[in-house]
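batch_manifest entry 22 of 60
target: phosphatidyl-N-methylethanolamine N-methyltransferase
source organism: Nicator chloris
requested by: lab member K.T.
priority: normal
notes from requester: please return tokens only, no post-processing; we will run our own comparison against the previous entry in this batch. if the run fails, retry once and flag.
--- input ---
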Amino acid sequence: CCLPNSFTEAMKSQPKLEGWDYHWTYYSGLAILAVGTLFVISSFLALGFTGTFLGDYFGILMEEKVTSFPFNILDNPMYWGSTAIYLGWSLMHASPAGLLLTAVVAISYTIAVLYEGPFTEEIYRRKQKGVKSK
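--- output ---
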């Protein structure tokens, strides 16, 4: 959720986008950052500590897959909320380096979702199947 210092330092050490260093860009970025923060925090609250930090990979499952807010709005709200935080921060600082790094983050999360999504679906499918057979 929180931006690493290296991200901020990379942005500060690079030139700003000419024509983007205006109030509208700053406030657009701030709004995107706020939405991203809402998704990240609400995801954490919905999943709890264990659900957030890969409990399912260690066999510690929730009673059922979480489908309440923010998961009823979009899949993987923590990933996309985090990406929105990076994007918002980049816009607030009119940083082309930040935008490029945000794209790298988004691509990384997209790849992670390709593997994690089917895994999560399968473990909860198996859990439901096991509960029904008891």
